[in-house]
Amino acid sequence: MIVIQYSAEVQAAKAAGSAIVALESTIITHGMPFPQNVEVAAQVEQDIRDAGATPATIAVMQGVLHVGLEPDQLQSLGQAKDVAKVSRADMPACMAMGKTGATTVAATMIAARLAGISVFATGGIGGVHKGAETSFDISADLMELAQTPVTVVAAGAKAILDIPKTLEILETQGVPVISYGQDSFPAFWSSQSDLKAPLRMDSASDIARAQIMRSAMGLPGGQLIANPIPREAEIAAEVLAPVIAQAQGEADAQGVSGKAVTPFLLQRIFELTEGRSLTANIALVRNNARLAAEIAKEMVALNC
Ligand code: PSU
Ligand code: MN
Fold it and tell me: Which domains occur in the chain, in start order?
């Protein structure tokens, strides 16, 4: 039997049937350095509360699936060393063996579904890595979107990924990819890319209706909402391209592979941009949290 440990506020929100937004924990343990990781995680939770919803940060701690972390739990996770990064393949093993693991987008979606939460905010999703034609490195996040009914709000996908191939896999898997408020698919640190998103929506209520329609038609899976970074926080694609190329070159030269690739690239880009990438990352996660809260409130309104 799965024991889910809810935080006090998530427990109360579930009892009241009010809006809840799931948050992942890999971004805390592998995506940002301490202490900014804990500060940002707490800030993002507060943004969701300020928008009228309840945050549920998800992680496995000593084998227990936590949906919503108390402040001291968030602190200890943010400082813990050698926390595993758990995705669909490793989450059950992590729980069965009583270990601690930070959840990726895929694992967070699985936990959200188990907890009855249908909206989730993050920074960027995993995708198809550059060179995937030889490495076969394609994130399990993409297949999760095809099978687990959770709407995921992200700022598009990072330019460390092969974005055209990422969009192709999502299309093949039947995942709706919806840009919010613009035609182009946003590129994480930059609000625009030269790729058009397959779908565009301009309101949280349309996004909520589309997810509900998908489920009503018996189609499994969620939706990817690509929410552009606020203009004032973006970094131009031309500035980032050489930085990404350098980080990718170092990863290849050092033989970094598998699940270590994304954290390695993020860390190197942080260093090479002297922290600017992190400032942008924080702005876009907060922006995604606010939109996710609006979608979650619309879902509650439509479902009753
Ligand atoms: N992309 C980011 N920041 C992140 C991640 C992805 O811009 O922190 C994390 C997310 O948790 C995502 C995971 O689900 O990396 C994808 O890892 P992989 O490519 O190994 O599936
Ligand atoms: Mn991978």
Answer: 1-117 (3.40.1790.10), 123-304 (3.40.1790.10)
